[in-house]
Design brief:
Layout (H helix, E strand, L loop, with lengths): L6 H9 L9 H35 L3 H66 L3 H56 L27 H17 L1 H7 L16 H16 L17 E3 L4 E7 L8 H13 L3 E5 L5 H14 L6 E3 L1
Parallel strand pairs: 2-3, 3-4
Antiparallel strand pairs: 1-2
Length: 360
């Protein structure tokens, strides 16, 4: 139960012009316990989810997984800040409860001391036949002393709260504001239900071909590819350097096709269709991309959208790539539905449906 004054002492404090702190230290202690429990729940959330996140990162690869790892690390930092803020709040509230109790105890002890002296004065006055006014003159300094004492205690309490607790709450508010701002930026402007809030064109994880893209979807895909190039200019530059187009002086013949291949490589890596360590091969005639971690070489084959497209020729080219022990990525970005249908039927007939990486 919260500490209260007996009626006699409460009346004495009132006569002295003092104030009894109205804060309930018991409820403050209960509130502190609730904050502590919340910190425990947040800590359990982190300890329970971190192993699962680590498992995802160790069993998968690709730019999307790298992005997830970076995002998860930031999330854990914000979670740690939130835990610290909640624990700090619990400490602050608990400290306030202790300070309020100490102030009440000090006031009660001062009032009890004065009350004891008053009783002693009255007793001595009665024994000596003293008059009431003499007692009154003696009581006045005691009440003044009690008034000063109470206000000194309350001033100490306010100063302690201002210098200690208010500073702590400001620090806590900074943590909370930082976490809030991070989460606000995370979800700001997110549209659609695609990962990262980007309206990526339909796809099936590279496992099977998608339908023909609409003009709007092609525009969105182009913007996405351009964004990837802008976000990682060094990798984009490296991906443009095809060894098959390296000149004798060591420079590279970089044209629109090389730039398109580079953006495709960035997107394949970002989607996780190909490994995150994807790079251009070292020598000529080794395909378009290479992964040191898998030891595999990858060839990109874009579908000609023109009416001159010949599925038999396309089949022969893919077959030659497989004969060289390379992985094949079929780029359907600009393919009309009629071409997609022919390629899908050809892949089913040859048993290549699950062997081809379909992009996007």
């Amino acid at each position: 139960m919260t500490l209260t004054l007996p009626p006699d002492l409460a009346d004495l404090v009132a006569k002295a012009g003092g104030r009894w702190p109205q804060a309930d230290e018991d409820q403050l202690h209960d509130l502190s316990g609730k904050w502590t429990a919340m910190a425990g729940e947040l800590r359990s959330l982190k300890s329970g989810s971190s192993p699962a996140a680590q498992l995802v990162r160790t069993q998968n690869q690709g730019a999307s997984i790298d992005s997830f790892g970076s995002l998860w690390a930031q999330f854990e930092q914000q979670l740690d800040a939130s835990i610290a803020a909640v624990e700090g709040t619990a400490t602050a509230v608990r400290s306030m409860a202790s300070a309020v109790f100490a102030a009440k105890k000090a006031i009660a002890q001062g009032a009890a001391s004065v009350y004891g002296k008053i009783l002693e004065i009255r007793r001595l006055a009665g024994m000596s036949g003293g008059i009431i006014c003499a007692v009154g003159r003696l009581l006045l300094p005691l009440l003044r002393w009690l008034w000063k004492y109470i206000w000194q205690v309350l001033r100490w309490l306010l100063t302690w709260i201002w210098k200690g607790i208010v500073w702590l709450f400001r620090t806590i508010a900074g943590w909370i504001a930082g976490a809030y701002e991070w989460f606000r930026k995370l979800f700001k402007g997110k549209k659609g239900n695609q990962p990262g809030g980007k309206n990526k064109p339909p796809g099936h994880g590279g496992k099977k071909p998608h339908r023909e893209l609409t003009p709007q979807e092609r525009q969105e895909l182009d913007r996405h590819r351009n964004d990837l190039a802008a976000k990682d200019p060094q990798r984009y530059s490296d991906y443009q350097k095809d060894p098959d187009h390296r000149r004798r002086d060591g420079t590279y013949d970089i044209d629109d096709n090389a730039r398109a291949e580079a953006k495709t490589g960035l997107d394949l890596r970002e989607r996780g269709y190909l490994p995150s360590d994807l790079q251009r091969p070292q020598g000529r005639g080794q395909g378009d991309f290479y992964s040191p971690s898998t030891g595999k070489y990858y060839d990109l084959k874009e579908v000609d959208p023109s009416p001159n497209f010949n599925v038999n020729n396309f089949e022969n080219k893919i077959g030659n790539m497989f004969n060289k022990n390379r992985e094949v990525v079929v780029d359907l970005r600009n393919a009309p539905q009629s071409h997609i249908n022919q390629i899908q039927q050809m892949a089913a007939r040859r048993g290549w449906q699950n062997r081809i990486v379909w992009y996007p």
